[in-house]
Amino acid sequence: MNEQTHPDKALADLAESRREIESLTYTIAHDLRAPLRTIEGFARALSEDSGEGLGEDGRRYLQHVLEASHKMSLMLEGLLSLARIYRAEFHPVTLDLANLARGIVARLRAAEPARPVEVAIAEKLAAAADPALLTAALEALLHNAWKFSRGREPARIEVGVQPATPPVYFVRDNGVGFDMRYASKLFGPFQRLHSEREFEGAGIGLASAHRIIRRHGGRIWAEAEPDRGASFYFTLAEGPGPVGATP
After folding, report:
1. Cα distances (angstroms) measured from residue 174 to each of 3, 10, 59, 228
2. Rounded to two decimals, what is the model's pTM?
3. 177 or 142: which carries more pLDDT confidence?
4. Which of 138, 120, 125, 136 is nearest to 95 (CA)?
């Protein structure tokens, strides 16, 4: 087999291409933040200082500029967040995923102390993973469950594991769910199955979780029904070695 068709070289070339794309994405998103802040800053100053003189149409147009620039800022931060996942160092250790989940839920409760949410977390969930990255993935999944169970009485969230090799961890809620026909869109950046008017967010959390789980050499998937909640499952590669370090 010649060099051009050797599978190892093809995989190496693919990994290098992905790293280049990630680097370019990070650079572009980073460099666009400054001019976007300038646009948003001047638009806000114009609204505050001269808004009354613009007339009703002028004020409406300026509001569209402010809303669009804010949305673009969220998208750029999302792109930077995704790029950082593969730029971050990868140091897997043995940890208790249940402890991570309890800490995240405590922060969610502190942000909405008046909201009653029933949360059941398995007593211990041993895992071999990078602590910072897995915390970010679990935050995305729990924040997703917390958000989309809003309005349920009571809202319920469960974190646990199904015995398998490798173990299958899950985050489950009784929220609005979704139609499985659109499940392929779940983990794409800025993809949404519900409108921004219904649920806030930039559509980046599940994409981040997907990349983090893949970096661990695992996989993530979901099962749901409309108005009957959703379950997100994921696996992590066995052993503490730096598997999945390339996308």
Report:
1. 53, 44, 42, 6
2. 0.69
3. 142
4. 125
